[in-house]
Amino acid sequence: MITARDMTAAELAALLHFHAEAGVEWLVEDAPVDRQAEFSAERQARQRPAAAAATAAPGTAPAPERRRPEAPQPAPRPAAAVAIPDEHAVTEARFAAESARTLDELRTAVEAFGGCNLKTSARSTVFAAGDPAAGVMVIGPMPSADDDREGAAFSGKAGFLLDRMLAAIGLSRETVLLSTVIPWRPPGDRPPSAPEAAICRPFVERQIELAEPKAVLLLGNFTARFFFGGTGTIHALRGEWREIACGSHAVPAIATLHPQELLTAPASKALAWADLQAFRARLGG
What is the DSSP letter of 266? Predict the structure, then answer.
């Protein structure tokens, strides 16, 4: 009879695979084992030293008790990062943004910034991409799950639709600068809180200041409110040219519906097309 010791690792793996395919779920020994009897014997063996100590003659010192080796203590956990108060985080973000003299330096500053709690749950830091010298910026709200996974703004189905929207007015990802207001995806795609938006504001405003675009296309409800203020919906804020102040620059901007909103409500594509034509006319002028 061939035993397990006589088999190679490959032969053992093949045998186990054969048993699994045959429906075998338990492997038993050749002879039955009385586990209850084993447990009783172990318990009696543990009780004998205590009984012997209790019946020892008076005046005799009990045998020294054997102490079990102490279990190794777990390594201390690193202390949790101390949260930076919102007002200090905004100050640090403003200082980091103003210290950057180029978009590359600003990217490094954003990636190194640790004052926003959104960064702790996000997989990627999404920064501006495209042609900084094109004079055209397209800004969305915050990274989506696709953006966070790919590390680039406007990925997935919404990004594919944006590509078609830009192509309809003679533009592309390579001829504009794409960015987002918030560089990190909020958990569960929730809207950023007011403190989180305030912390991220210096970074996106510095992007606009360094790129010096001739016109900015704002996508979505959150983005329009972020730059224009107020509590109006995108349907109330879209289609009207306004100026947004970024440092010493005042840049004309127009808002329209986000591609994701158009995927949800295709009937609004006519409104977005009118906004895109106005954007194209402004660039041509």
Answer: G
- Spell out the per-residue pLDDT of the chain, length 285, in tens: 566 666 777 776 777 766 665 555 556 666 666 767 776 777 777 777 656 655 655 555 555 555 555 555 555 554 444 456 678 999 999 999 999 999 999 999 999 999 999 999 999 999 999 999 999 999 999 999 999 999 999 999 999 999 999 999 999 999 999 999 999 999 999 999 999 999 999 999 999 999 999 999 999 999 999 999 988 999 999 999 999 987 777 899 999 999 999 999 999 999 999 999 999 999 985
> In angstroms, rounded to a whole number, what is the distance separating the alpha carbons of residues 129 and 179?
7
pTM: 0.70
Helix (H) or strand (E) holding 225: helix 221-228
For the chain, the domains span 86-284
Tell me which fold the domain 86-284 belongs to. Answer: Uracil-DNA Glycosylase, subunit E (3.40.470)
Using DSSP bridges, classify how beta strands 242-246 and 249-256 pair: parallel, antiparallel or unpaired: antiparallel
